[in-house]
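In the laboratory, one determines a bound structure by crystallizing the protein with its ligand and collecting diffraction data. In a computational setting the workflow is compressed into a single prediction: the sequence and the ligand go in, and a structural description comes out. We illustrate the idea with heme C.
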Amino acid sequence: MSSTRHYVISVFVLLPLISILTLLIPLVSGKQERAIGPSYDAPVEVSAGDAVNGEYLFRSKCYGCHVKENPNAILLDTADFKARHADDASIISIVRGGPAPMPAFNSQMLDDQEMADVIAYLRALP
Ligand code: HEC
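The predicted complex, in structure-token form:
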């Protein structure tokens, strides 16, 4: 009889207790879960802009407003534009800032590499 009670105690009390403690170990040991993928402050490498991808991006995100067929469009392929925006930083601050009614493109809408690609496309325009 006594050995049956020991069996019952070990199976129905000790085993669940051990399993619960095992599950709790990672919580109390202070181990941090590892993030999947690069951490947020990992440096993002931006390689030289790819004008071909830039054209694709420009056509899908910018073209509707910056298109010759639109009589009110602000065109980005003019000599005047090139003269005023000789440095990339000036284009980046406009695109990220979004001078109304142009939307501000944050890095989810256009990441740094895509920005470099769009600029490479604009620079490649005749
Ligand atoms: C909803 C329409 C719209 C979209 C979409 C748009 N723009 Fe614009 N953009 C404008 C308007 C309007 C202006 C002029 C704002 C002002 O008056 O300062 C402008 C201005 C600019 C300028 C400054 C032009 C200059 O002559 O100095 C740049 C550069 C530019 N946009 C780039 C882009 C790029 C790159 C994209 C796509 C990622 C884009 N825009 C998408 C409407 C738009």
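Residues 1-30 form one domain. Keep in mind that any predicted model is a hypothesis to be tested, not a measurement.
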